[in-house]
């Protein structure tokens, strides 16, 4: 999907969701998307690892919520307290920059240093009722 600012992202939705089979490239749709991040300092020597779980639930009126919980132990590559961002190197050697939204976690960012091990629990959920988007003005 591409948002109004032109930023692209991949969003997981169940293929059996009402209206999914009629989507075409270029269609404008509205979806509800939620994400949260919990970050904790891991003990020194923690090795990078990852685990993932999925869940689905009905939202009524033909919609479903598809959720993913990913727990990752990773190394801090960079911390930008002013932007509230942390770049992490995960178990597969891939760097990912995460925006820290939680005010309590934002206060801890100046104490986080490159090389620290962290445990990150990342939750995303897409309420996958597909609705035609309002016409652009």
What does this structure look like?
This protein has one helix spanning 103-108, and strands at 29-41, 49-60, 63-80, 85-89, 95-99, 117-132. The chain starts with 28 loop residues before the first strand and ends in a 5-residue tail after the last strand. A hairpin with a 2-residue loop joins strand 2 and strand 3. Strands 1, 2, 3, 4, 5 and 6 form a six-stranded antiparallel sheet that branches. The protein is elongated. The chain has 137 residues and is mostly beta strands. It has one domain (20-132). The longest helix has 6 residues, at 103-108.
Q: Write down the domain tally.
A: 1
- The tally of strands reads 6
- Multimeric status of the protein: single chain
Estimate the mean pLDDT confidence: 76
* Helix percent band: under 10%
Order of helices and strands: EEEEEHE
Number of contiguous helices:
1
Strand content: over 45%
Major beta-sheet overview: 6 strands, antiparallel
């Amino acid at each position: 999907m591409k948002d109004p600012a032109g930023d692209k992202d991949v969003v997981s939705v169940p293929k059996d969701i009402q209206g999914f089979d009629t989507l075409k490239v270029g269609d404008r749709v509205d979806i509800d998307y939620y994400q949260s991040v919990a970050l904790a300092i891991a003990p020194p020597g923690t090795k990078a690892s990852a685990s993932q779980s999925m869940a689905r639930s009905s939202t009524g009126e033909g919609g479903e919520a598809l959720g993913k919980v990913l727990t990752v132990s990773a190394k801090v590559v960079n911390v930008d307290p002013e932007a509230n961002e942390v770049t992490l190197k995960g178990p597969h050697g891939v760097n990912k920059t995460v925006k820290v939204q939680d005010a309590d976690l934002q206060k801890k960012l100046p104490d986080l240093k490159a090389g620290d091990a962290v445990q990150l629990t990342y939750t995303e959920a897409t309420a996958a009722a597909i609705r035609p988007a309002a016409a652009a003005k």
